[in-house]
Each structure stands twice: as C-alpha cells, then as structure tokens.
Amino acid sequence: MRGLKIAVNRQFVGRVREINKLKEIDQNSDAQAIFIYGRRRVGKTELIEQFFRKKNIIKFEGLQVDPSVRFDFLKDQQRQISESLRRLAIYTNDSKIPRSVDTWSHFFELLRIHIRESDVLYFEEVQWLSSYRSEFFSRLKVFWDDFFKHIPKLRIIICGSSPSFISNEIASNQAFYNRSSSEINLSPFNITEIKQYLGAGFGAREILMATLTVGGICGYLEHFKKSESSIFQTLCKLSAVKDGALKTEFKKIFINSMSSNKHYKNIINYLSKKKFASKIQIADHLRLKTPGGNLTKILQDLDECNFIDAYTPILNENARNIKRYCISDEYLNFYNRFILPELRNINSNMYDDSPMMFIDEQKLQISMGFIFEKWCRKNHKLLAEIMMFNQVKYNAGAFFSKKTDQIDRGFQIDLMYIRKDSRIVICEIKNYHETLDDQQIIKSIKDKRDLFIKQNPKFKHYTYELTLIAPEGVSEKIRTDGVIKHVITFDDIFNHT
Question: Global pTM?
C-alpha cells in the first residue's frame, strides 16, 4: 500500500521539544500510538508530515461538520466511514474496496490486512472523523489490542483540533499505550519561533505586534510572511474585507475545536471586554442561576484549548472563589475587540478601498499594552532565565488585593516571583514605544512593594528585587539610580532566546 508523498518543507522552523519527543518515541521497535492535538492552524499537520515524511504515511482525514445542517450522528458516521473507504481504495489501488460499510469495525477489518511494518497510520481531525463520539476510539482500541500493537514499528497518529475532546478520549482509553510518553499538546510558537518563521525582514516591534494580535499560530503568521506589506497593513487587509482571512477565521475555530454550545463564543466575547472576570460574573452574564458543573466543564474546555486562562492571586492558589478568567488566545482577543464591533461595516464593504482606516492605531496600542502583560505572565520562565534565577524554585503570577484593614487602597502587581531563596521579584510591565523616563513609575513600583509587605508581614524580611519590563529600554537615570534591579528589553528577550 503506497501512502502520501510529502515534500521537504525547507522553511520548517522550531518544534525542537516536540521533535525530540517524537524521535524518542520512534526509536522504540514496538508499535506506538501517538496522540497529537492543539487548536486550529497551530501546525500539527506540518509537524507530523515533516517528521514522518520518509515513511509510508496512510492518512485518513475527517470531513468538516456542516454547522448549518442539523447534526445526525448516524448519517455523519456513514459519511466519515465512506470517505475513509474512498481513501483506502486509492492507497491500495483496489477496486474491490466497498464504498460503504456499517461500522468502524468493518472499516478497520478491511484496513488491517494492508498495514505493514513501519507504516504510519495517521488519523487527522479525529473529532470530525469520530463524529464527536467515542465509538471510533472504542473500535480502534479493539483492533489495537488484537492486531496493530503486534506490528513492529507501526506508528498510529491520532490528531485533532479539539483538545478537550481528545484529552477526554485519551483518559478513557489508556490501553492504547503509555499516555505520558505518547501525548503531545502542540502549543503555539514562542516569540523566538515567531521571529524565525517570519524571517529577517521584520524588526522586533513588528514581531511583537504579530505576537500580540494573532499569537504564535503559524497558519496566521503565514499571511504576514507572504505579504510584502507591514504587519499593520496586512493585519488591516486580512480583517477589514468580507472574505478576509482573520475576519472569517473566528467561526472556523469553533467548528474545529468546540461543540455547538452557544456559551463558548459568548464567554469569549464577554472576556474580551474585560481584563478578567470571576466564575460568578461569567454565570451572571450567561444568566445562569448557579455557576455549577456545566459552566465548569465549559470553562475547562476553553482552558484546554488555550483560549482562556484561569489564575488566582499568587498567594491564594487554592482559593476558588477568587479565581479569575481572561482570554489567553491573542487572535480571539483581537477579533472580539476589533473585528466583531465592525462586522456590519465590513460586510457592507465600507473598508474595501481603504483597509488602513479599519484599525485605530491608538486603540491597538492600548490593547497591545494589556495583552503584553498577559504575554509576560505566560512567559515567566523566559523572564526568569533573563534575570538569571531560573534554577531557583519559585511561584510566579499576578498579585491583586482589595482595600483591607492593613492597607488603605487596593493594588495589583503585574507579575511577581516568590523565590525559595527568600527573594521576591516585583515586575512592572510597560509596553511603551520609546525609552521609558517616567519617575512616577519608580514611585509606583516602590509603593506596591511597601503595600505588599504591609499586607503580608511574613515576607518583610525577604530581599526585594524590583524589575521593569520595558521593550524599548529605560533612561540612564532610571537605570543607575539603584532602585531597579532588572530592566528587560527587546534585546534581552530576542538575544537571550
């Protein structure tokens, strides 16, 4: 059976950790089942096909569910099975392969007799292939136990764009293999990989704009890479016209990654208008009587897809009642803040002749400042490496407090580290477009330190390090006055990584 011919992608970058893990798995002479999942356009297919391109790849891909048609499980299952049979007939060049069979068991029975040692059996968009049900997995498990796991060097790849669905299926089908060694949740590119992917034609400020508006999703970054325009111009062009890629992408994300539950989009839209919200606030917005199990499951799904992030104050990690939720996916934030409010104008072709008028640059810069704070919290390990204490154990996160008996006003620390070596690092994050020379910022960060100590006297004997994260740097006066221990700039971020 002859599989796919995969050409070398000479522009393939990054994914060092994932490639090393796949190499480790592939060195095993036994059959291996590998689960790879992540949100739409993150680069799963390219990773799989580039890594296994020298092998015989037998690929079966799920057909997209039509959201405009009422879902019928049995009809959709037959549609997916029939498409898989069609592909099998092509791979085997066997005209006797039937056009339809009743169950996935019948399909696997036809498939198994053609699978050989070292083949790569690749199931893509498995959430569609399985019609969002467990039957596909339960049937595959039987054939894994009875046949596939006995074929030396066979690799079964189960891949999809619905992390929560696949993760649940993995949890209920542990017999496929050792989950800890065969599961890859593919994350977006980090900022170093974004820089590598975009190439040498973009400066640090544009790379940061791409990072904070569409994130490390290579499917979106590809548009910037191919364009001869600036990041800002391309961002406008892709957003401001009716069939623009960033305008139409929103619906596709939820078709790929989520079920039809209306609350998913509603929560994303609500959080896009806020810095954060509690579970109770989200329940009130959705007009749910109680923030119970159903909402918990929805929030877990959004979290597993890396669409939202749930965090608590750094000193209250187990305090459920003060857990805060915010959007962590940069594209979803950009869509809801800039594209959604303009949909009527976009659909009436208002910006077709002048797409650069679509985005208010000042509003974009304010939004990017807010998103940059989130980016720093997500990348606390990178920042710890730059400050050279990454080998010390620590807790990291935001700190926020309301007015209490100890302090006369509330305050928030953008990012802080409580280190095991009795040091606390307090970070102030300022995404300015010029060198930072505002003495009030020094006063502000010192005040936050003092308020934190007053409210938390058990830390008064710790050593405090004050940090400014300012991409364009700070003035010489700020740098040399002795108050600020660390200043993290673009040069530190890009040269370090």
Answer: 0.89
